[in-house]
Amino acid sequence: GEDVEQSLFLSVREGDSSVINCTYTDSSSTYLYWYKQEPGAGLQLLTYIFSNMDMKQDQRLTVLLNKKDKHLSLRIADTQTGDSAIYFCAVVTGTASKLTFGTGTRLQVTL
Amino acid sequence: GAVVSQHPSWVICKSGTSVKIECRSLDFQATTMFWYRQFPKQSLMLMATSNEGSKATYEQGVEKDKFLINHASLTLSTLTVTSAHPEDSSFYICSARQGAINQPQHFGDGTRLSIL
Fold this sequence. Notes:
The complex is a heterodimer. Chain A has strands at about 5, 10-15, 20-25, 30-35, 45-50, 55-60, 60-65, 70-75, 85-95, 100, 105-110. Chain A is mainly β. Helix content of chain B is about 0%, strand content about 50%. In chain B, strands 2, 4, 5, 6, 9, 10 and 11 form a 7-stranded mixed sheet that branches. A 4-stranded antiparallel sheet of chain B has the order 1-3-8-7, with no helix packed on it.
């Protein structure tokens, strides 16, 4: 089945850009999502990209998709302390109706 | 838009009791709802998928008699943890999707269940 991996931790300074990376194994993945989870809360949908796209930009967020390498990234420009959270990538593969989640990356923003 | 409400947000109960958690889509019709379990510092584990008016599809290893799922309407799904024990203590999160698989899932705020 699909395997989705992320690095566990990223620390950046306020005002810098953050880049969170995600790799997946199934080349038939069709829809790829980024979610944010704050402590004790559910998941907030940040953005998503379809497999026929290479890039999507939404205000401070930029998603890049490299289908050849099966690599997805989320760039947050001008990172703020309020961006501190756990970020999950999630992938829909083939005709499956369910999401496969990555392991989550904890983003720490320091002053 | 796309708001999912989950209730209660936190529940503590004695071992052996049953606990019901509700998941509602407030501003859209959810043809499919999902129930996840999340252990501390871990990712989400899908427990089951439910379509309105149909029996839920459980993931391997999830006991259907233990975790009863009902999806009686397009805006409400419930998860009942029957005869709960301390090992059932966890963070349970629901999500809802309107339409086909090209639509995103929207998540509730989760329910923290503690069994004493």
